[in-house]
Give the backbone structure.
Amino acid sequence: MSEFAAETRAVDSACWQALRRHAERLGSVPLRALLAEGDVRVERLHCAAGPWHADFSKQRIDESSLAALLALARAAGIEGRRDQLFAGERVNVTEDRAALHVALRGSADPGIQVEGVDVADDIAGSFAKLGEFVEAVRAGRITGYSGRPLRHIVNLGIGGSDLGPRMAVRALRAHSLPELRLHFVANLDGADLASTLAHCPAAETLVIVASKTFTTQETLANARSVRAWLEQAVTAAGLPAGVATNQFASVTANLDRAREFGIPDACIFPFRDWVGGRYSLWSSVGLPLALAIGMNGFAQLLAGAAAIDHHFRSAPLEANLPVWLALIDIWNLDFLGAESHAMLPYSDSLALLPAYLQQLEMESNGKSVRADGTPVGCPTAPVIWGEAGTVGQHSFYQLLHQGGRLIPCDFIAFAEADFDLPGHHDALLAHCLAQSAALALGKTLAEATSELSAAGHDPATVARLAPHKVFPGNQPSTTLIAHRLTAESLGALIALHEHKVFVQAAIWGLNPFDQWGVEYGKVLAARLLPQVAAGRTDPIEDASTRAAIAIIAALRARRRS
Ligand code: F6P
């Protein structure tokens, strides 16, 4: 239980009041002035962990406000909470579970048992089974009903059973086995599955049903449809039903349900309920990634995360990168008033990182009730959004530069390209660095005026255009740089954000490992399904829903007439 949850809320602490005073003091200090301190500032606001270097000098902080933030982290008992996490304590207090994703990369304390099961042994057994299967598929030793190797992998999953593997497979595409085609289907909308299967030869397709609970409506609907598709193909090939059972695999914590679905035990790759869905990439949920990059590559992903685990456990708070990432976000959100956070990876291979971090951050900390049931009393997780650079520069950077909103940005870049075409990577890096500088420094009216004059415009034109060329600046950002995008640097990057989220939750007093907020909509949808199907508006209480069902029914009636 967080110290605040037991004693005082963060918002009621002396640390919080001190930070309010720092925000009042710094609120009107432009980043230009802070950056005028030059190299000394950059050096003092640099933090590194594993392969990652982070520059916080373009954040609207100074040494005393940073010290106050660190005091807040200390007062929240971060070190103690961290030790509870790594010791396998039941930190997921509302579901009475441990959260042992760190064990999946060998970082948990030794000897942890959960309900009589030795965690390390259990994980080793799961990975041994997974490894055999992965290498057999990659070597073409596992064939489909026509005897041909399985070369199309279709992962059916959603949320944590999709976003992590999907993001990582794209991120590491430079390291993937070229003859394997990885496909990801998440949506209940049949368009997702149908458009995917159109490109998959049934005889060469391996279907992975990825679901921790094996009860998620979207995934089960897709699994049933794929099963029908596969059976239809087997029949059309004149073969008896059931010859394609080894073309189904499952990663799940609910083995009984997977068996009931008809998946053979040899193709069920279990993980435990002490692995949260959005923290499960490191488990058998990572099967698609392991198929793409091999078990050695997967081991490098785990090693990258383990290096950050070690850093998080051993670095003093003053030099602890996940702690800094967490505190800077809290500073921008709770003291400077930001409401969203833009993730801007200058790496096309990391284009799905913002979507992955949306679930990790917003499903973990998008809460307003603390672990002990009392209100948090302050804004918590930001709205996470973003796009790979330079693509985003041609859509929303106008708002970032001149929209007048405070939107902290994280720039992520690599010194070397993962696909090295001449004349591309240096320009990509130049854009990344230029955008963070322009956002921070801005351009004054005087500067815009003199630029226009120097370009030869007449005074009337200068006066007319200059206001449109002013950039307020002062938009804070952090820049994260690593040498290359590899399985190791990706694993480290993800672990940095897992621990950032954990630190924020500890300070806000939240439980980052449950997600009660996703249940209500599901219950309402189950109630509405028969009405939507029948076009009936009774007995729906709210007029808006009734009207929508009536419109849908009327439009469908047109189709039949
Ligand atoms: O979004 C709610 C959620 O429970 C996520 O936490 C989870 O990752 C996702 O649905 C899928 O759940 P499952 O892996 O059990 O299908």
